[in-house]
Structures are given as structure tokens and as C-alpha cells.
Amino acid sequence: MKRRDFLKSGIALAAITTLNPWTSLFGKEKKLNDELRRSDFGADFLWGVATAAYQIEGAYQEDGKGLSIWDTFSNTKGKIKTGENGNIATDFYHLYEQDIALLKQMNIPNFRFSIAWSRVLPKGVGEVNKKGLEFYHKVIDACLERGIEPWITLYHWDLPQALEDKGGWINREVIQWFKEYVTLCIREFKGKVKNWMIMNEPTAFTALGYMLGIHAPGKKGIDKFLKASHHTALALAEGGRTIRELFPQANIGSTFSCSYIEPLKPKNKHQKAAARIEAVMNKFFLEAVLGRGYPIQDFPALKRIKKFMLPGDEDKLKFDLDFVGLQNYTREVVKYSLFRPVIWANQVKPQKRGVETTEMGWEVYPESVYQMLKIYASYPEIPKIIITESGASFPDKLEDSKIHDEKRKKYLQDVLKQVLRAKKEGVPVQGYFIWTFTDNFEWAEGFRPRFGLVYVDFQSQKRYIKDSGKWFAEFLSK
Ligand code: FCB
After folding, report:
1. Is residue 1 one of the residues assigned to a domain?
2. Which atom of ligand 1 is nearest to the CA of 451?
3. Element (H, E) at 195
4. Residue 43 placed within a domain
């Protein structure tokens, strides 16, 4: 039997169910959960898991899908650390039904996923791929039938390659291309899906993809970054306006990466260096969409972006989001540096500071979430915050069909305590989505850093709920 037939047969799911006897597990978890209760967060608090199309779907050339920049990038030698690609990923394209059944089994009420632009518009604009739209209808229906609320990200980094060939985010026409894509998705799915996120972490995909060249499309240079960033910021706001116009009842957000940033020492030069890093990493897109413009005051070199601005752009950057998606994984300690021109700042690596790190090399620092929640809450323009990603990767070992991922479980619990602390202090945080549901393709890192609540054997595509997933399921069951 071929691998895919086996998977389709549902045997894999049956195996998971028998391998994870819920009854015995609930007893063990009880003690820990006594400390942290779902009800402490209030009945309206949203709980979910987050994913992204490229990291899970696979089926990269199936049913009329066009290639995206990530298909090209991951299939180019030397771009992915492990030489792997996302051509199959976790095969969610074929296994979505089984995976969504697993979500239900784990009591997870909200599911965040993204639409692959090139699956519905293979060339980015123009001809629509009906089979692509059908796939997302099936995913949405599979959620709704089980009482799971879909939360859709419109853009999670996988620009159609056909658009990249015309310059991608560097070409100002991208604003129109994005609008066409957003219009298609909203018209198609507004009858079923209320919650929309316009983009995922614009800082990450512009900086990594257009300045540092370590993510798709692999471009480098400050001007490329600034130009791509300005178009991204304009497209974000235009995307928001488009959704609002077509679907006034929609719940519209966008997600932003952020890390709590601290100067190495309380010295002026380090503090200023930290402010520059903060301007790029935390404030850039957030403040633009809030209507505050780009944070040029904190980082004067950013004024170079003005070269790419047309009259009237300043106003077009603003859009009133219904919620801001906060995504946090760590903190950064920053010092002044003579060796990094323009920004004159450098990160003091956690390895140098001798602190605990995750498999990504990120400092384990749950309090960063609290600090960032407080900072977001200090913007009067932000009405509501949802943590749309939070999680950690640690090496997992499958033993006897089990994964005892104590570190991940503890990390999530420690973060939730920080979320509760902020909430009790009046921060308008109204939801928490764990990154991520199943292990998946972690971009330029390949499959090695595992973030999932559910372990994936990438050879057999079998899923195994980790101890962290069992804990979350139990926590949600109350
Ligand atoms: C975030 C991305 C997400 C995932 C996590 C680990 O920056 O949005 O796709 O890669 O990091």
C-alpha cells in the first residue's frame, strides 16, 4: 500500500486514539492543572492553536496550485539548513480531516490556519483555481461541523512565485495584487468565516526575505527591505479596508512579532541601541497601521523609507484593526555596537549570557509575554489583543509512542501565568493561540525544530499527542 493510501485510510488516526488513553492521563495531569484553570481567564477568553499553509499543507503542485516563493526557495540547494523542503510537509492537504478530528479530540475550540495565495490564484492574479477554493471550503466545513471556529490568516509568507517574478513586495503593484486576492477570499468565505488576520508578522518576512536573504525570496539589502516594507504596510491597511467594505461584520486583525527588548546596561548608548532595535523589530508595522507613521524618531536612518513614499501614503498606512495579534517567543538583550553600521546595535546572544534556550537558540523567558502585553496595552489605539502565536521548540523523543515534553509544557504554563498576570492588571488580552498544533516545516530550519503539541513522524505521517498536548486538552476540558 502506498504511504498516502495508508494515511487516507484513517488507520493512523485510530492508532493515535488507542495510543493515548485519555482516562489514565487525566488523573496524572490533574495536580498541575490545579494551579492554572481555564476559568481564571474568563468564559469569553479564546483558546486555540495556530498554523500556516506552507508549513503544513504539502501538495505543492497538486490540483492546479501555482508555485509560491517558498516552493522555489526550499527547492533551491543550500537555502534550507537541512536540505529539506515543504513539498509534502505534514500532508495536511490530504490529512486535514484527520487533523481536525484530532483538534476536536483535544478540545481545541479555535483553529488558526492560512490560505496559500497560489493555491487559489496560481499566478497570483487572474485565473482562479476552483479546486484550491474547494480545499479551503472542506477545511472550514470540517471545523464548523465539529464546532471549531476557523481563524484565517490571508498572508503567511507564501507569495505566488509569478508575482515575485514581477518584483514581489518590491513592486508597488503588489498592493493591487493583494487586494484582488483578499477580495476573492472574502467573497468566497465570508458566509462561513468571521475572523480574519490580514498578514502574519510583516517584520519577519520583509527583514528575513528582503534584507537578510535567509527566508524566501532570498533578497538582500536595506533599500529592498525598506521598499518591500512600505508596500507591505500599505497592502496591510488596504487589505483591512477591503475586508471591511466587503464584510462589515468581520472580526479583522493582523499579527505582529515582538520581543521584549532590554539594553545590556542602563547606559545611554545601549539604551539608544535598544530603541533602534525596538523600532525595527516591534514598532515598525504596528505603529504604521495604528496611524503613528514609521518610528523614525527612535531610529533616524529609517527616514530612507521616504524615498519610496508617494504623496498621501502616510494616511493610507492607517487602518482600525478590531484586534492586534501579538506573537512572542523570547526577549532580546541589546548593546551598542561599532561593528554594525546603520543600526549600530547588536544582540547579546543568550548563549553568551548563559541562559536557558530553546532548540531555536531563543532564550526561555516567559515574562517577555507579560512585558509585551503591557507595552501593547499602553497604545490607546489598540482595542483588543489576542496572542496569536506563542510556543517553544525543544528536542522531542518518541519513546513507546509517547513524548514526555516537560519543558514545552512548563514553558506554556509559565507563559499562561504571565498572560493572567497582565490580564489581572487590566490588559485587554482576550485570547491565546499556541504555536503550533502539529510539528511542521520550520521554514529555513527544516523539520528539526519541533513546536507542536502533537508529534509528527514525518516518514509515516503518524501523529502522537505529546504530554504538552495532553495537558492542554485537559486544561481546556474544564
Ligand atoms: C513565527 C512564525 C511561524 C513559526 C514560528 C515559530 O515567527 O509566524 O510561522 O515559524 O515563528
Report:
1. no
2. 6
3. strand 195-200
4. yes
